[in-house]
Amino acid sequence: MGYKEWKTSGYLKEQFVRLGYEVKEAQGIPGFTAELDTGRKGPKIAVLGELDALFCENHPAADPDTGAVHACGHLIQTSVMLGVAAALKEEGSLNGLAGSIIFAAVPAEETIDLEYRNQLIEQGVIRYVAGKIEFLYRGLFDEVDLAIMFHADSSENKLFKLIDGMDGCITKHMEYKGVASHAGGAPHKGVNALYAASLGLQACNSLRETFQEKDYVRYHPVITGGGGAANIIPGLVKLDTYVRAAAIDKMIEVNDRINRALAASAAALGAKVVIEDKPGNLPLHSNRELNDLCERVIEELFGKNKIIHAGWDTQSSDIGDLSSLIPVIQPLCMGAEGKQHGDDYYIGDREKCVINPAKVLTCMIYELLKEEAALAKDIKHNYKPLYHTKEDYFKAIDAIERKRELVTYLENGDVLLKLQ
User: Which homologous superfamily does the CATH classification assign to the domain defined by 6-164+286-386?
Assistant: First the structure.
């Protein structure tokens, strides 16, 4: 899983070195970049590949010790990226092109395993839970002008899917703190943290009918620690969740309402609750000009009527953070089978999932960088970023981050809910 992908990163590095690339490793975490310069001044295009797995212990390919498995569509990205890197090393591939291509093997796209990542932050190993944000913070995407990548999906009668964008998310780790006591002999002396957490879950569920469809709000908590023994009133319960929406302002607004529900539920039973909010991902806004180019290339390579136009997607990815600064797209290629993040997910057609998108990205790079990179320059010039500088971006996402205890019991019997 994220920030643990040492084997994958090492294997992929070997393949790039074998192709003749000079690899620049990220320090202290998995991942690297490798650059290919055309020899002519021009824009820099990033081709991205995500390294990490997720947790799905029931999947037949899951690691028996950790439950980690590549059961998401981004598992094809490193192979696609390697295919593009190999194609552009062929003799004559860079003729007539201006600019450079940077290949980035990036860790930790799935915003999971939050306790572990928070430990890495406390130890100073990382600053952010998501890999592309960490790469941004470390300067590994400095001078990148555009970014492109693919993601796998499934469809019986099409080859590709184009999307307008995806939700962003705030990641939340929550700990309800009660008082442990003997569940049979002295339950009245305890404060049941599990009951308080259950009440918090119900309170948040009661907010769902207030979410409007246009905001694409999603909220899906899980209990990661619910008590250790049936004869002990649970004194500590842990939960993780995301708060997703289509705009950063809506993410923050809904998150504040959820915190109020969590705090009031703890207070109702005399418990405490500590929340740790961190920036997960910003919404992805696919660049229309890059999407148009992708569609033209697909039609030239594979013919017409091979594309699904899917509109908005309620998943989240840290490529959204890049889209707040530079033009990016993440179209989808078909060939996967089963439920994404499910125990039946696998790649059924590797040509559709790997070879086809590698061809598309290679041809897109050619179109972007030919004729003194005229098209890439136009797209960059026309783009209106959400944030004009990296400093503005980090100021905005850092404002999301907070860790605090929401409930304080005063000596006079009053209960204080600290929501901001």
Answer: Zn peptidases (3.40.630.10)
With 0.85 as the threshold, say if the pTM is over it.
Answer: yes
Backbone angles phi, psi at 173, to 5 degrees: -115, 130
Q: Each residue of 330-345: pLDDT tens digit?
A: 999 999 998 888 888 8
Q: What is the dihedral angle through the alpha carbons of 171, 123, 69, 225, rounded to the nearest 10 degrees? A: -60
Residue located via tokens 């993601």: 151
- CATH class of the domain comprising 168-281+400-417: alpha beta
pLDDT in tens, 57-69: 999 999 999 889 8
CA-to-CA distance for 412 and 331, rounded, in angstroms? Answer: 58
Spatial neighbors of 16 by CB under 8 A, at least 6 apart, are 23, 32, 34, 82, 85, 103
In the chain, domain spans: 6-164+286-386, 168-281+400-417
CA dihedral 38, 41, 43, 49 (to 10 degrees): 30
| DSSP helix, strand, coil percent of the chain (3-state; round to 5) | 35, 25, 40
**Distance of alpha carbon 29 from alpha carbon 120, whole angstroms:** 10
